[in-house]
């Protein structure tokens, strides 16, 4: 579902899309990076029910992390040599899987700064003669489902009280009441796919089989068309950046912000940091880098020339600039106007980050994984 040739390279979301930025011309190349909504692989000691504990790794990387962030108590994700098992990060959930079909062995939930084992439950029912079933782990208003069979094909990750939204086998958006098992089709065109739900659970964006987008309002139960978004966008190419605003790209590759309450559209003055769904734009002036929010018109000046750096954006808030040759990472919290300059010269490793939420991040060298609070990362 993609007209942009650049995205033909996107096979799984575990890779960062990165760009060398030079005089505002962005060239696509593929680079391994990890963050919250992405998939990353490592192996877990499965006997643990809680993995937010400290292990006495004496590696060079652990020592560097302790010295860099001046912390002796670092939460760590332990690793096992059983390469048949690996991890997949999904929202706040951590799935322990094995095999090419990614069979799930265990699911952990991120709670209070650590991952703890979640309780797997099963659900089954029947709708208009069609049976369905799935397994799931639920934590507050977050849910992760797997082993879906029958009428329910895939689900959204946020619950509206006890209402679960899902994509059906006949390509419609539907709701399922987990208490009563009542299923209600919310669309009936058999062309509704690729849903995304807003943080407050009021809006669900729907792609109509590469033709156009709509938004369904879970409060008014009305669906309206969005004409401005390119119908070929992948899910990572547009995003909610608060409860009712989305940012993405038009058919003309312009960055735009859409207010789902009013359907008002603002075309931003420059294309954003393509292809990430964000309101940010970057300029380079001499030995400085200027990061601009084209929607709020805020700016942040950085005393570095980052034109040769690759970048990644998370949650329309955190920006990571990295230069592997210089072994340097600049981590930016645009909301708080803070940044940190991380120099890992001499480690002979590539450092990556997984943003879990607005308070926690995982730092990794692809062998060891440590949970840090963002207050430690950005003091």
Report on the structure:
The chain has 379 residues and is mainly beta. It has helices spanning 60-69, 374-377, and strands at residues 15-22, 25-32, 75-77, 85-90, 93-98, 103-111, 114-117, 121-127, 130-139, 142-150, 152-155, 163-168, 173-177, 183-185, 192-197, 203-208, 213-217, 222-226, 239-240, 245-249, 255-259, 264-267, 280-285, 288-293, 299-302, 310-314, 318-323, 328-333, 338-343, 352-355, 360-364, 369-373. The protein has two helices and 32 strands. A hairpin with a 7-residue loop joins β11 and β12. The longest helix is centred in the N-terminal third of the chain and has 10 residues, at 60-69. The radius of gyration is 21 Å and the shape is globular.
Name the overall outline.
globular
The total strand number stands at 32
What is the percentage of strand-forming residues?
A: over 45%
Largest sheet: 4 strands, antiparallel
Spatial order of the strands in the main sheet? 3-32-31-30
**Cα distance, first to last residue?**
41 Å
Number of helices: 2
Structural class: mainly beta
Considering DSSP H and I runs of 4 or more, what fraction of the residues is helical?
under 10%
Average pLDDT for all residues:
83
Radius of gyration: 21 Å
User: Poorly predicted ranges (pLDDT <50, ≥5 residues)?
Assistant: 1-56
What's the helix and strand layout?
Layout: E1 15-22, E2 25-32, H1 60-69, E3 75-77, E4 85-90, E5 93-98, E6 103-111, E7 114-117, E8 121-127, E9 130-139, E10 142-150, E11 152-155, E12 163-168, E13 173-177, E14 183-185, E15 192-197, E16 203-208, E17 213-217, E18 222-226, E19 239-240, E20 245-249, E21 255-259, E22 264-267, E23 280-285, E24 288-293, E25 299-302, E26 310-314, E27 318-323, E28 328-333, E29 338-343, E30 352-355, E31 360-364, E32 369-373, H2 374-377
Antiparallel strand pairs: 1-2, 3-32, 4-5, 5-6, 6-7, 8-9, 9-10, 11-12, 12-13, 13-14, 15-16, 16-17, 17-18, 19-20, 20-21, 21-22, 23-24, 24-25, 26-27, 27-28, 28-29, 30-31, 31-32
